Amino acid sequence: MPQFLENHANAAPVKRERRKDARPGELLAAALDLFVEKGFAGTRVEEVALRAGVSKGTLFLYFSSKEELFKAVVREYIGTHLRAGHEALCVAKEPAADMLAFCITQWWERYGATKAAGITKLMMSEAANFPELAEFYQQEVILPGRALIRSVLQHGVNTSEFAIDDIDNAVFAVLAPLMFLILWRHSLGPCSPASQQLDPSRFLKSQISILLRGVLATQRHSDRGRVTVQTVKTYEAKTA
Amino acid sequence: MPQFLENHANAAPVKRERRKDARPGELLAAALDLFVEKGFAGTRVEEVALRAGVSKGTLFLYFSSKEELFKAVVREYIGTHLRAGHEALCVAKEPAADMLAFCITQWWERYGATKAAGITKLMMSEAANFPELAEFYQQEVILPGRALIRSVLQHGVNTSEFAIDDIDNAVFAVLAPLMFLILWRHSLGPCSPASQQLDPSRFLKSQISILLRGVLATQRHSDRGRVTVQTVKTYEAKTA
Amino acid sequence: MPQFLENHANAAPVKRERRKDARPGELLAAALDLFVEKGFAGTRVEEVALRAGVSKGTLFLYFSSKEELFKAVVREYIGTHLRAGHEALCVAKEPAADMLAFCITQWWERYGATKAAGITKLMMSEAANFPELAEFYQQEVILPGRALIRSVLQHGVNTSEFAIDDIDNAVFAVLAPLMFLILWRHSLGPCSPASQQLDPSRFLKSQISILLRGVLATQRHSDRGRVTVQTVKTYEAKTA
Amino acid sequence: MPQFLENHANAAPVKRERRKDARPGELLAAALDLFVEKGFAGTRVEEVALRAGVSKGTLFLYFSSKEELFKAVVREYIGTHLRAGHEALCVAKEPAADMLAFCITQWWERYGATKAAGITKLMMSEAANFPELAEFYQQEVILPGRALIRSVLQHGVNTSEFAIDDIDNAVFAVLAPLMFLILWRHSLGPCSPASQQLDPSRFLKSQISILLRGVLATQRHSDRGRVTVQTVKTYEAKTA
DNA sequence: GATGAATGAGGATTCATTCAT
DNA sequence: CATGAATGAATCCTCATTCAT
Fold this sequence. Notes:
The structure is a homotetramer.
Chain A: H1 3-9, H2 16-42, H3 45-51, H4 56-62, H5 66-89, H6 96-112, H7 118-126, H8 131-158, H9 167-186, H10 200-215
Chain A binds a DNA duplex through helix 2 and helix 4.
């Protein structure tokens, strides 16, 4: 008789050994949710434990303090982020516009739409209280992200596909809508009436559209025959 | 009778209450700083009192609880926000591109660069813990802001200056960089090395440039003779 | 009307200012009792607070942690000890036997019979858990005490009043009964039936008598005409 | 039937239970060390188990609670003490001075220098928390010990070897240095620099010397020809 | 028996709030 | 009004004890 059927005989109580391996992950997931929702100080460890289905004491078997739990959450989900990011990095190269759009949509699917995205909001809220973590986050997430986007933009500029004056700041034209979407969904979004919810795919489509029209240098035809954009010159606003 | 005259009716005791009236303002300012930096739960009322130069007990003479203090902070600085926003609203109308750029720079000067901008970060962090405040913020700030931007964009579309597919989402192409700038300056920014700081004016200039190229329908000359942008068609990204 | 009568008028609520100065002392006294009785780990801070007539939180206004409270107790009562010790040190010099007896009785009256003596038991019990304090206690109390006694013994030897082979160890012949008396009174004594209680004055008289006969070199007459002791040679026991 | 034979009656299963019977011994030894070092409350049962090489759960198979473990430790090592004490009691009788010295050195070798001596420190520290144990300790250890020493002193007095005014308190002149040595070695000693360590054999030699000079009535020659002590009269200190 | 994961009562510590001065 | 000492509910964390494996 196959082994996996034997387990079914007395299935009800999940095996302890199995549980022990799963605990940290369950606790981290619960902690992420609550930290994102209520902030570090506003979250009670017991709540985290209960949400993970264990008692207060059990949490401390795996994380020596609330602060360590917090750090572990950030590290764990930053790990997820980075892996996803690096995978996305290694794909489709041409043309730059497609690549940029691809990066954005991939980023959304692999990070923005996942639980891990809560880390972004978390860092925004708690940076001042955890400066070491904030620095860590900068080094491990922000800088690589900025570099990745910058390389795509630079690539477009090199191939004359993009016309960008200030690439360093242009990077934020890509990042800002992505951050905005995440922050919205993790803060004001859940408090908004249905009529004001953001539809992520429409939102991203719109942002990609405006963004690309904003950086493309000239009209061109994509490899699939879709007409794109032609930009002539930089606009300089008349500001006060 | 003009509204601003009504205040004169009971002007006499103003001098007497000045001292008393000044206290709440100092407390609110101190509270704003600390709430923004450390979050609601992470801020101690004693710290607020100390920063405002009064004792802990005095704070409770003016605000019946920490939560009431928090609400007062939000309402106070939302007031500032709204007044600034509405004033900006009532000016320069043509052309739409200039108006948009003007709105953005005004918004920065009158709100983004002020202490009041901390409220934005605060609401992002605390929305889940103060749903009624979040709703209030949405109603009083977000919706009017979106409506204002939308009206500018719509205006541009109406005059054929702008070509925008999805105006509702395009609004966020304006909002996102502004939010990003505020959040950066109130969270990760202070934790970053000097080399990675954002220069607000360059940042905004870059965002305005890309944004306008992204929404303008066609090349045009601004009233001051600067050449701007010509966009031909909407780009549709080749995504998975 | 004398001032102390005025206080009687509205006596019930003791003045707060007065209280604040008294608090630390009251807390230290309560803490000494309980730490001596139950040990550091076995004592609850709330118990200390209650015995001092305040609430849990008040204790932490004066001592930042249980451990700091403990250290403060030791330092406070070591201070008492040292002051008493130094005063005793500066008196009656001759003859050495009188001086030794005087030191012992003074030590008892000024230290052994006071609350401060609990520190001795405390250090015996907690030395391993507070090595820094133990070292502090050694440096500040034990070493000076040993030096003091040693100087008295040496004085007696110099004047040929005492005959002592091993002065360094002889010091403990003075210390041991004193320690014993303290430890007895703070540990087993309170658990003993009345029939087995030690009478300190008899105990000390007996110890002084045996001790002096044990160290005196030769018969002599004290200045008050009491006959004393004559010792001829050192006894060397036949041990296995 | 001699008592020691009774154990043979059910000797057969001994081998089988040896393993099982060994465990409690290892646990008791580990527990003694830790209780002595850190006190009852300061010792964690898990630490005891680890030091004994078993798991936390196993400890509770043998001792139903931490408190029972503590009592078992005291009883176990008091047993050791008593056996050693009674054996020492039954030997060498003359002269009283030799017997006293013999008792002291035997006591040191058979008890003071062994792990069991930790019990003495333990009882000093924990008497107030375990009154029933303290009473047990008094009945089983202190009283017999005092009686033993008293009988030796009385014997010396009866033979005119000793001149002692207050025999009951004189007993403590014997006990005090012994207690002192044990307490020193189990508390402050381990925290002291090498330069201040006590050398037990020198310490005891010195104490015995002073003690015997302190109680002997007159000069005499020991059976090995060593000259000893002559005391003429009781010293009465001039105290305040 | 032995294990060690899990529990939860208990104790240290914090901090919003009160109130006598 | 202003103060800051005092309070105690709330929270983090520990550790004796249990129990499924």
